[in-house]
Amino acid sequence: MKVRLHELAHARAGDKANWSNISLIAYHASAWPVLRDQVTEERVLALFRHRGATAVSRYELPSLRALNFVIRDALEGGVNASLNLDIHGKTLSYRLLGAEVDASEAVRRAAAAAHRSDQPMAES
Questions:
Q1: pLDDT per residue over 4-40, tens digit each?
Q2: Which of 94, 97, 36 is closest to 65 using CA atoms?
Q3: Using CA atoms, how far apart are residues 78 and 93, in angstroms rounded to an integer?
Q4: At a CB cut-off of 8 Å and minimum separation 6, what does 82 contact?
Q5: Which helix H or strand E contains 24, and what residues bound it?
Q6: Which residues are paired to 13 by β-bridges?
């Protein structure tokens, strides 16, 4: 089934000059393979190309069940060059979280339960 990433993971975003940095962290261990296999550099570049992004590097952090994406040229010149009100890229993570992936109902339910609990890195 198709689900939006925000059902399986949360994200944090930051910036440095004209580059955006977005980390995507699975709510549950069962969601990690979905993120790892389906959220590729190519998919992320396609999501941010409209902002002028030219390249994406992906870094895997399996012990954290997280992916870190460095998106080059996504901030319209950076804090000192852009007229954009959100040039720091803090809200860019929401664009990534809106992307769809294929996941089973069991994975979606496990992630939802972990998200509601006090243990976002739950094993089961």
A1: 999 999 999 988 778 889 999 999 999 999 999 999 9
A2: 36
A3: 17
A4: 75, 76
A5: strand 19-26
A6: 22
Extract the tokens encoding 3.
């689900």
Joined together, the tokens standing for residue 73 give: 């040229």
- Residue 85: CA atoms inside 13 Å, Cβ hemisphere, count? 0
| Maximum C-alpha span of the chain | 47
Q: Scan for tokens 């006090």, then name that residue.
A: 118
Q: Which amino acid, 51?
A: R
CA dist., res. 14 & res. 11, Å (int)? 10
Under 8 Å between Cβ of 74 and 87: no
- pTM of this prediction? 0.84
Query: Two tokens at 11?
Result: 């994200």
Tokens of 81: 């060059």
Domain ranges in the chain?
Answer: 2-116
Low-confidence spans in the chain with pLDDT less than 70: 76-90, 118-124
